[in-house]
Amino acid sequence: MPGDDPLGREYPGGEERGATECCAERAGDADGPSIYQEFWRDARGEMERRDYAKALATIGGLTALGSLAAPLVSLTRVFEREYTGPVYSDGVALVDAEGEQIAEDRLAPGEQLTVFPASHPGIERAPTLLVRFEEGEYGGETRAEFTVGGYAAFSKVCTHAGCMVADRDGTTLVCPCHSGRFDALSGATVVGGPPPRALPQLPITLSSDGYLVATGDFEGPVGPGGG
Ligand code: FES
């Protein structure tokens, strides 16, 4: 139930699980992990994947899973859900969990990183998945004009029930809560599981001094609802 959510957020029901089941799981009753456990698992999983990616790179693996920064500061807050204005706007820099801007060479193809909008009034942190692939790999529903240098950015908040999309399966972004799957090479369109719509893509470009910045807000609503 929405009132049970520790952050006061509401989660609409999904196609496979009802609202009560989703929210009870996030609230941490006997049937599922608490929201804090879930965020810790998310962060821990990213750290583990970072190590795994390094190992893959060492052995010449083709599907490195990325140098992922753990958004520890955001574990208890996804973003200001009460805030209804733009999350990003033209010129807002993308930053990592430490607040460092993202230089053009930060990621290699196949890697990903959780980033956030540089702080500005009305919004503190909105987890965003930054991925990088070879430019020619993108297709399908990708908004090519929203990408730059092989980078594409999507909201990390699952459109099903608001979990963090923290896992990877090759080029597929995977939500651990109900196995929602999104194609990173095709605009994060849904390719499996209950999410009702794609993760909204963020238009990005490189600033004159070589850092990733947004050129506007997400192309659609962040998180559940709004579809
Ligand atoms: S929250 Fe259900 S698949 Fe992501």
Description:
This protein has 227 residues and is of the alpha+beta class. It has a single domain (2-214), classed as 3-layer Sandwich (Rieske Iron-sulfur Protein), CATH 2.102.10. It is 15% helix and 18% strand. It has helices spanning 19-27, 35-58, and strands spanning 94-95, 112-117, 128-132, 151-155, 167-169, 172-175, 180-183, 189-192, 201-202, 204-206, 212-214. The strands form 3 sheets. Strands 1-2-3-4-9 form a 5-stranded antiparallel beta sheet, with no helix packed on it. A 4-stranded antiparallel beta sheet has the order 5-6-7-8. A two-stranded antiparallel sheet has the order 10-11. The longest helix is centred in the first third of the chain and has 24 residues, at 35-58. The two termini are 21 Å apart. Residues 1-78 have low confidence and may be disordered. Bound molecules: FE2/S2 (inorganic) cluster. The site of FE2/S2 (inorganic) cluster (FES) has 12 residues, from loops. FE2/S2 (inorganic) cluster binds at residues 14, 158, 160-161, 163, 175, 177-178, 180, 193-195. This is Rieske (2Fe-2S) protein. Its cofactor is [2Fe-2S] cluster. Residues 1-31 are annotated as: Disordered.
What letter string, H or E per element, gives the SSE order? Answer: HHEEEEEEEEEEE
Secondary-structure arrangement, i.e. CATH architecture: 3-layer Sandwich
List the uncertain runs.
Answer: 1-78
At the first level of CATH, what is the class? Mainly Beta
CATH topology: Rieske Iron-sulfur Protein
- Taking all Cα atoms into account, the compactness measure Rg is 16 Å
The largest beta-sheet arranges its strands as 1-2-3-4-9
Q: Strand-residue fraction?
A: 15-25%
Helix vs. strand class: alpha+beta
* N-C termini distance: 21 Å
Number of domains: 1
Continuous helix count: 2
Largest sheet: 5 strands, antiparallel
Bound molecules: FE2/S2 (inorganic) cluster
Q: Give me the count of strands.
A: 11
Fourth-level CATH superfamily = Rieske [2Fe-2S] iron-sulphur domain
Mean pLDDT across residues: 73
The helix fraction, in percent, is: 10-25%
Cofactor: [2Fe-2S] cluster
GO cellular component, one term: membrane
Region (Disordered): 1-31
Protein name: Rieske (2Fe-2S) protein
